Amino acid sequence: MLVHRRKRPRYGVQTPLTSLIDIVFLLLIYFLLTTNFLVEEGIRVQLPQAESTVPQEDRELVVTVSPEGDVFMGAKALTLEELRELVKQRLEADPETAVVLKADRTLVLDRVVQVMDTIKAAGAARLRLATERPSP
Known about the structure:
Blueprint: H1 17-34, E1 60-65, E2 71-73, E3 76-78, H2 80-93, E4 98-103, H3 109-121, E5 127-129
Parallel strand pairs: 1-4, 4-5
Antiparallel strand pairs: 1-2, 2-3
């Protein structure tokens, strides 16, 4: 009796995709949880445009002047005296804090200078005027 060997079909190499998919999902969850979702609070103003804008650092105090000339820190409206006291308190806690002034481009220069003078009188050594890049 002759015995013939039967040829078995060859199986290709298969990579386990389950563990790869698990790792991808874990990385996705990690990046979603560690990403900072920045939401800028405050009053909506149209900033003046400048070609040479530079990104600012995190240690900053933002003061906004609305198109009507009202002064805000965050969403809280302030008088110039309240602004001076608040800036003075913040600068006493951290003297290296930069004060960023976001003034609407339609404002009269006199009001912006008043606010800048108030911030300087509070002891701010680093005062910056916020601008935005013009769109191409």
